[in-house]
Amino acid sequence: MADHSNSGTHPSEDQKKAIYEGLSDDQKKKQTYTEWVKDAYNNQYENWMPWIEDKYLAWFGTDNKASYATKDTLDKTKITGISQVDKLQDGVNNLVGDQVGKDGLLAPVGNMASKEGINRAERGGKDEQGSYLGPASSSPDSVIHNAKGAGEGLAGGAQSVGGAVSDGAKGAGSYVGGLFGGKKE
User: How far is the C-alpha of 113 from the C-alpha of 153, rounded, in Å?
Assistant: First the structure.
């Protein structure tokens, strides 16, 4: 009777050893069997984890990686201990994050930032095919320059939104305090 416990996508230990034994002597001198298996595992992890994370976010919410990261970053900017102001800030943070999410006004920008920015960062700068620049790129300098400019633009926009939320929340706190006899600043 045949053993089918390892049938599927994962090769058995014997299959891995057979693949390793099929390598050239030069390749075997560069890596031991254990190092070779570790590298193969790391390559698969690097290729599959960004995809798995994208699928998880798509199936269980309205976020992509860009909107999730935006919300997470803005959530760290709480400026008061007043629950009403914090709730207002949470609403604004979600509004901003949702705009780059699945159904947001800036969804194409969020999807591009997720795929070409965050996923590439997780893969050490490589795209889904393992290339640093992709087939359409002719000049590495222009790609690097354009990516840097886009990153600076996104960071500046997030800072502007964070500053506006902060100023608005401070103003709301002063106004609420003024209603109850507090000093208005």
Answer: 12
